[in-house]
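Sequence design from tokenized structure. All designs in this work follow the same two-part layout: the structure record, then the generated sequence. An example of the structure record is given first.
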């Protein structure tokens, strides 16, 4: 999960860069002012408490603010991360956020500070005031706001600098250059975290060959469910014998077995940059299992692809493979083939639909030759993390 705190003095361009970060990285925007107003409008218990304090001219306590932030995070599980604007404002709040992130099983990725010289900020805001007519954009008020920002921010910046999470950006540059520098910082941060991909598609859509090639190109560990099961059978393990029993009955392998194999794979691949999952999750239950397993390893889904291939086209591919040496036993049986397609349409498509809102599943045209499809997937990955190889 990508969690960023965006800092910068008034006039630094935080609004513009926030829009970029939210759109590009699917982050949920958390501004303490916005979420306080939302709670008040909704008439929640927390909102009523905040409204009463604000009406009397007081400052809303950290206790209330942290509860509202926690509620906001928990109510948006589909977010790939969160962008904090206006929080933490104080050294104490920095500790609060750190504890909250730990409680929720995540952490702050970094604090990005848009550095703009004092006089440049004054110049920008005075210019803005001349255009907008905002009463608070006069030089006397501006200087007081900047002094307050500096006094409050320095301790917070030191807090994150000590933890190695502080990232400075020259905010006096042109907007495009600031955006480029922020992108480079996030690209670097993402490369330091596990990058996990799930690839969906009909049987015969090319998931196995594409996931193997993607794993090789980007240094990911491939978790191909079919291969994991076949390895257990070939090695005649106790789990392999149980898998054979399911196969004999033409049943799907129990989730209990599948989870053991995936968890073992996650624990044994310590140096992986991330994982690419093929053949899992097939069901909504398995989707919850995968999210739980990754959360246990302080990770989450980064990208999900859906290889779009017409069903008849996919069946033709499987039939052709069934006649070759690479054919699987289920490629040679029309009954088993149709059962797999039916299961995809009745179960796996529901996972894809759910994940569209949670992780933003990217449709990939799976028709054409291998290289053409591989290039389409690679471009999407490179768009998220340039120079990931």
């Amino acid at each position: 999960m990508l969690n960023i705190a965006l800092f910068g003095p008034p006039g630094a361009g935080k609004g513009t860069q926030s829009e970029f970060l939210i759109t590009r990285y699917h982050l949920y925007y958390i501004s303490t002012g916005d979420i306080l107003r939302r709670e008040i409008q909704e008439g929640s218990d927390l909102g009523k408490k905040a409204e009463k304090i604000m009406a009397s001219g007081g400052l809303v306590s950290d206790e209330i603010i942290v509860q509202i932030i926690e509620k906001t995070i928990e109510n948006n599980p589909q977010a790939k991360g969160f962008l904090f604007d206006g929080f933490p404002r104080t050294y104490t709040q920095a500790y609060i956020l750190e504890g909250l992130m730990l409680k929720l099983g995540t952490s702050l990725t970094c604090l990005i500070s848009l550095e703009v010289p004092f006089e440049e900020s004054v110049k920008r805001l005075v210019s803005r005031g001349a255009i907008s007519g905002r009463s608070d954009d006069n030089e006397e008020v501006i200087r007081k706001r900047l002094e307050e920002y500096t006094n409050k921010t320095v301790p917070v910046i030191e807090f994150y600098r000590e933890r190695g999470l502080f990232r400075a950006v020259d905010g006096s540059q042109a907007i495009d250059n600031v955006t480029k520098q922020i992108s480079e910082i996030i690209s670097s941060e993402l490369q330091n975290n596990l990058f996990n991909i799930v690839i969906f598609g009909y049987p015969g859509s090319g998931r196995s060959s594409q996931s193997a090639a993607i794993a090789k190109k980007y240094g990911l560990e491939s978790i191909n469910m079919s291969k994991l099961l076949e390895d257990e059978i070939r090695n005649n393990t106790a789990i392999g014998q149980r898998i054979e029993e399911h196969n004999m009955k033409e049943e799907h392998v129990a989730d209990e077995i599948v989870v053991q194999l995936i968890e073992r794979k996650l624990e044994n691949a310590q140096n992986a940059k991330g994982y690419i999952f093929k053949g899992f999750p097939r069901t909504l239950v398995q989707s919850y299992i995968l999210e739980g397993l990754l959360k246990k390893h302080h990770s989450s889904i980064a990208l999900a692809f859906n290889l779009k291939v017409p069903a008849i086209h996919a069946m033709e591919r499987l039939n052709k493979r069934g006649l070759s040496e690479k054919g699987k036993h289920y490629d040679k049986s029309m009954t088993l083939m149709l059962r797999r397609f039916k299961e995809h349409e009745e179960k796996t498509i529901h996972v894809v639909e759910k994940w569209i809102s949670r992780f933003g599943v990217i449709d990939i045209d799976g028709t054409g030759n291998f290289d053409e499809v591989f290039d389409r997937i690679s471009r999407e990955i490179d768009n998220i993390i340039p120079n990931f190889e």
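The mean pLDDT is 86. We note this feature because it recurs in several other targets discussed in the main text.
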